[in-house]
Amino acid sequence: MYFRFPLLSEVILCLGALEGNFRQYRLLVQQHNLVHAPAHHLRLRQAILLSAAILLALTTSPRISMPPPHRSPASISPSMTNPVNSARLRHEVVREADEEGIRGYETELQKTKAKASADLQQNVYQNRTQFIKISKEAEKLKAEMRSLRNVFEELKSNTTALRSATNNNDASMNGEFSTGLSKRDKRSSVADRSALWNSQMQALYKNVEGSQKFLPNSMGRHVVQNAGAWIELDNATYKPRRSMHVFLLNDHLLIASRKKRKVDTPNDVRGPMTKLVADRCWPLLDIEVIDMAGTNESSSGRNKLADAVMVRGVGQESFIYRTEKPEDPMKPNLMLNIRKAVEELRKGLQSEMEANNKAKETINYFASRDPGLLQKTELLETLSDIKDMLIEVDGKQQNLRWVEGQMDELDIDIALQRFDLAVDRVENLKNLARGLKKNIIAQDFINFKVEERSAKLAGLIVRELIDTHSEQTKTKRNVGWLSRLGYEDRAREAYLEARGNLIQKRSRQCIFQGDLHAYIWQLSFVYFSIIRNTVSCFQSCFPQPMMSACVKWAKEEVDAFNVILARQLSSVEKDGEAWQMCIERAKLHAQMLEEVHLDFKDFVGKNVSHLKPVRANGPVGLGLAQ
């Protein structure tokens, strides 16, 4: 595949044509004094400059060529730099080469061929990409020219509509002057205007069947113009298809079809013979209404479409409607009212966006820094009101941005695991929030952010507590931090769970090697020594009211030991010498609990004979059949 790039002369001719078109366009703008022309003027100028840059880049870009392969000069270079000469190749390269050299030369040729093919494919891909860019720019320029044509059409229709509106106002000036004051008085009140709009919508629902399905009643919706009878034309032949009725609302365009009413009896004259049925409805911001007067070049087509408009909806779906009467002033009035309605809608959306942006500035600031704030709907709704709120901190007035700065410092301390500084900051911020009793909004805001970071900090400290539960000094420090954060229960549960896991781990390391007495001695020593150390550390690290939880944990571990003891003694005779010796050794180790003021000696071996030797959650003695 080969692509020919434009020559410099072709580029110059193309640029000259573009510049000539641009000069003609600027001359037309100056002659007609267009309002919307400057924007199109700038966009067209930019398109011309961009096209010029692309064409110049393509002109100066290198042609598709085969890059020289990087091979040894003795083997491949002679054959690649010049046209292939088989005789010369045979005499100069292959003549004195052995079989291994010929194979190596063949391998190098294959590699060179593959590399040349890859380079060619890459060049083709680059050229294709450049042509795609040029096509896109051409489409963009085409769209700009289409927009320019629409501007000319709008200028023409606006001039016609203004001329028609001026004539109508002059004709009806005397008739409406006497009632103008009463209408202004009637619409001076918002309630009266809402009542009028509501009555208009009710009349529309009554007269147009199915209209409420397309246009449910909403605040501010009203009828702007009843455009009267129209005819729908075929898009291809411009032949009439059916009779329609057009209603323009402040935010929608409703098209209703006229159908014959079913008459029960021949003498039934209760209403008109036709009825209106809603057929199509579009939001004004989703459609484009085009005047078809100047779109057809032939005289016959121009006569057919002189009073027609095209409604282009979503998905390039278009419909053509024509007024029933030729040169009906209803068409220019409809076009003018549509433009006014669209302009009002855009102004309303813009003002609404500006109002929302002021509130969203604060919301986005806080929400981007703390995504969890999005779940607090009530607090999020009040963020726009507290942007400039001031709070008193150590006798100074600070805004909520200062609070965000403190949160940043807290996040840094948590990330660097400076737990002492982080806990101090959490306490200070909580005290600050408690002092804001009269400012509920700021209090909720600070509490939410502090609680979120406090939970994260507590999780890190709990993890360190589990890792260092065997060191009493670190355990006491970690428990103190968690108590200051308000997570005493979580610290207690994590510590006791870690100690229970340690008992299971150490007991599984006790291996039964045939001596039951030694195995029971090891197992009981592990259980009661760890229970004693746990209770001792718990008494020094946790507050006294929590001691009952530790005693309950110790009792559960003793019960777990009794289950294992019953399982191991199930193979020996009850009250025998071996049985008595194992029980005595277990009770001997249970006396270690007296050092921490716990007397569980009577619980050790209690009702061992009544316990079923089944597998429990605790550790299982190794080496015995179950």
Automatic annotation (TrEMBL):
Location in the cell: Cytoplasmic vesicle, Secretory vesicle
Chain segments carrying region Disordered: 165-188
One GO CC term, this protein: exocyst
Gene3D superfamilies, sorted: Exo84p, C-terminal helical domain, Exo84p, N-terminal helical domain, Pleckstrin-homology domain (PH domain)/Phosphotyrosine-binding domain (PTB)
Coiled-coil region list: 131-158
Task performed by this protein: Involved in the secretory pathway as part of the exocyst complex which tethers secretory vesicles to the sites of exocytosis. Plays a role in both the assembly of the exocyst and the polarization of this complex to specific sites of the plasma membrane for exocytosis. Also involved in assembly of the spliceosome.
PANTHER family: EXOCYST COMPLEX COMPONENT 8
Subunit description: Component of the exocyst complex.
Family classification: Belongs to the EXO84 family.
Name of this chain's protein: Exocyst complex component EXO84
Source organism per UniProt: Eutypa lata (strain UCR-EL1)
